Amino acid sequence: ELKVEQNPLFLSMQEGKNYTIYCNYSTTSDRLYWYRQDPGKSLESLFVLLSNGAVKQEGRLMASLDTKARLSTLHITAAVHDLSATYFCAVDIGGGADGLTFGKGTHLIIQP
Amino acid sequence: EPEVTQTPSHQVTQMGQEVILRCVPISNHLYFYWYRQILGQKVEFLVSFYNNEISEKSEIFDDQFSVERPDGSNFTLKIRSTKLEDSAMYFCASRATGGFNQPQHFGDGTRLSIL
């Protein structure tokens, strides 16, 4: 059974600081997705990582994938309040029709 | 930008009653999914649907659950006899193709409250 573990589960940080969220998974896969969820809202796709060494950046967020270590990271640079949300990683090990297995999410609060 | 739309946004139902949650996936998408999220917990996969049949289902998706694509646009999740533990947010998602470079796009969800 695929397990996806995120840490930390809760993170409070100040604006302007850098931090990294980690996502470990238990079964070989080269397909990993990051989503953002605001309170009471849907999941918004942030990054699609499809190969070992993949790195994607959007604004202050950068995601990477190391399939050998079964590890993905989401790095936040110079955090701003608007990035406060819950961030989920999700792994896909099946075919195109298969469901995603999500981590528990990292609840991120960025304080002024 | 095209969206996945779900109705209703909130459904309150008595335990034991049947409930149908509705979704309109993005129009050119071929793969459809249902997930649920119990308050404060992670998102859990229920079922995927492709080519008018179920492709994969999780252990949560037991005989009380069914899915249907009754026409060319709607995708529904039916819970036959609801239990208290079915209370959750239910998300519908769709994906354009089987290609993994396309993420699954999620709707805003239906909050299901079982009394």
The chain-level structural class of chain A is mainly beta
The helix content of chain A, as a percent range, equals: under 10%
Quickly count the helices of chain A.
0
Strand content of chain A: over 45%
> Which percent bin holds the helix content of chain B?
under 10%
Largest interface in this structure = A-B, 25 and 31 residues
Biggest beta sheet attributes of chain B: 7 strands, mixed
Mean pLDDT of chain A: 92
Largest sheet of chain A: 6 strands, mixed
Radius of gyration of chain A: 13 Å
Over the alpha carbons, how many angstroms does the gyration radius of chain B reach?
A: 13 Å
Number of strands of chain A: 11
The helix-strand sequence of chain A is: EEEEEEEEEEE
Describe the structure.
The complex is a heterodimer of chains A (112) and B (115). With 112 residues, chain A is an all-beta fold. Chain A is 0% helix and 54% strand. Chain A is built from no helices and eleven strands. In chain A, the strands form two sheets. In chain A, strands 2, 4, 5, 9, 10 and 11 form a six-stranded mixed beta sheet that branches. Chain A has a five-stranded antiparallel beta sheet with strand order 1-3-8-7-6, with no helix packed on it. Chain B is mainly β and 115 residues long. Helices cover 0% and strands 50% of the residues of chain B. In chain B, the strands form two sheets. In chain B, strands 2, 4, 5, 6, 9, 10 and 11 form a seven-stranded mixed beta sheet that branches. In chain B, strands 1-3-8-7 form a four-stranded antiparallel beta sheet, with no helix packed on it. The mean pLDDT of chain B is 92. The chains are: A mainly beta (112), B mainly beta (115). Chains A and B meet through β5 and β10 of A and β4, β5 and β10 of B.
